User: Which sequence fits this backbone?
């Protein structure tokens, strides 16, 4: 049973009394993280060769532990005959396969080369495919198509990093169903059929994860109570309002969900719990655009969300998403207009084509999210941090080998001066990164820079931090 992080009450703190955060490396909250990552789907607006090379260089810096990659059956199934037999693209030559699946394979090639775990999945039933209509998730052909594709990707193409599978995006949402009518029994049937099809192909180690609900918290409660044997991991989505983040409601609700699933599923302690999509909903406009991703505060809120995920005993989270050019929000104009793309990325590789070349640069929130990925890699243990109970102050601490990583978030306008201590850890080489408006060093590529070379700090005595209002400090300490 994971121990949920506790907060030390700061009621009665005298004015000017030092604020102390104590990291307890011996008290584990999450024994082994899945880590933080990003959504990276096949592009609706593919990048140029130069933009692709730049994207890979940026991913090399970020080092995500996991990517979520969603696509659809009609990209690999050319049709299904009246006899129910599928016609798959992989029966053609490599040129035809690459022409059809270029970006899916490019993403998986990179993930395989870098050892990045992949959560693969299909958005929704494919609809009309040749002579057949697969309109609901309980149609047995959909499970067959998905399992055949997984077998081909895993066993023929060799993508061993495909570890998790998600059949149907956000099935609790009326936006995902024909006519807006949610049919939970049909979804449950589809999941059970998929598990049988995967098992029949020798893919028992490919975990179905879900329920992939957005809000609709009862879906994970019910799935863990009635379908635990079908799922090898528990994940859901949350697009949070600002107040939910500031009040710590994400941590509280996820801690409650964690307890419920652990009680319902006897094997839950051995399964990953993670957020399959996270972002901020407040400020969303034009159908599905989030202009706040271009602003400094978005990075602070996303760091706060990430801290609350780990503090609640969950194993990681996936940010939505990498690049504006992945998805269209309205139509498919060429080149895209200002209202065409879903604006949620760390950059927009279509910026120049749209007359906004500045959009191709890295946006501010890349700094905290990339540092989360780098400093809290998969396999890290999240450990407890006792801290003052102050609005917007959140600490996430992790241990990976001889490294201790600490993220302190001040999601408030209050100036905070804190001392971070790690009892039992003495002199250490400490490196810091800062993310504050007007104080967020980056290099010529937009990659975050540390404040300077590592310095020797006795962490038993403590490391003083100055936080001038809203921002984030990252610390990496290697014990000497």
Assistant:
């Amino acid at each position: 049973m994971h121990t949920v992080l506790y907060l030390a009450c700061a009621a009665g703190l005298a004015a000017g009394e030092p604020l102390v955060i104590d990291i307890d490396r011996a008290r584990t909250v999450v024994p082994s993280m899945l880590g933080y990552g990003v959504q990276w789907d096949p592009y609706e607006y593919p990048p140029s060769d130069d933009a692709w090379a730049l994207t890979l260089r940026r991913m090399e810096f970020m080092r995500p532990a996991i990517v979520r990659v969603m696509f659809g059956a009609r990209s690999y199934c050319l049709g299904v005959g009246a006899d129910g037999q599928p016609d798959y693209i992989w029966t053609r030559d490599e040129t035809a396969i690459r022409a059809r699946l270029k970006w899916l394979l490019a993403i998986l090639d990179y993930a395989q080369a870098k050892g990045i775990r992949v959560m693969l999945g299909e958005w929704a039933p494919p609809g009309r495919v040749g002579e057949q209509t697969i309109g609901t998730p309980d149609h047995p052909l959909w499970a067959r198509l998905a399992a055949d594709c997984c077998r081909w990707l895993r066993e023929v193409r060799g993508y061993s990093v495909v570890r998790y599978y998600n059949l149907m995006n956000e099935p609790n949402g009326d936006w995902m169903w024909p006519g807006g009518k949610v049919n939970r029994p049909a979804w449950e049937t589809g999941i059970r059929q998929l598990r049988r099809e995967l098992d029949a192909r020798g893919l028992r180690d490919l975990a179905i994860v879900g329920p992939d609900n957005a809000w609709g918290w009862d879906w994970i409660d019910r799935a863990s109570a009635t379908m635990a044997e079908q799922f090898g991991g528990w994940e859901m989505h949350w697009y949070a309002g600002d107040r939910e983040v500031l009040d710590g409601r994400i941590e509280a609700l996820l801690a409650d969900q964690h307890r419920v699933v652990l009680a319902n599923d006897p094997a839950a302690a051995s399964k990953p719990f993670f957020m399959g999509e996270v972002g901020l909903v407040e400020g969303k406009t034009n159908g599905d655009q989030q202009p706040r991703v271009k602003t400094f505060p978005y990075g602070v809120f996303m760091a706060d969300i990430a801290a609350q995920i780990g503090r609640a005993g969950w194993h990681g989270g996936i940010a939505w998403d990498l690049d504006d050019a992945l998805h269209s929000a309205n139509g498919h104009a060429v080149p895209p207009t200002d209202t065409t793309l879903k604006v949620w990325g760390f950059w927009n590789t279509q910026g120049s084509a749209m007359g906004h070349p500045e959009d191709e640069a890295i946006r501010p929130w890349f700094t905290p999210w990339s540092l989360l990925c780098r400093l809290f890699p998969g396999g890290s243990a999240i450990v407890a941090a006792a801290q003052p109970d102050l609005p917007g102050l959140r600490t996430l601490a992790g241990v990976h080998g001889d490294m201790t990583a600490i993220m302190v978030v001040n999601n408030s306008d209050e100036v905070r001066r804190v001392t971070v201590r790690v009892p039992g850890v003495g002199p250490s080489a400490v490196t810091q990164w800062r993310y504050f408006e007007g104080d967020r060093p980056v290099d010529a590529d937009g990659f975050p820079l540390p404040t300077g070379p590592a310095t020797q700090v006795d962490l038993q005595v403590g490391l003083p931090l100055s936080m001038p209002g809203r921002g984030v400090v990252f610390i990496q300490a290697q014990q000497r």
Remarks:
- Residues 1-15 have pLDDT under 50 and may be disordered.
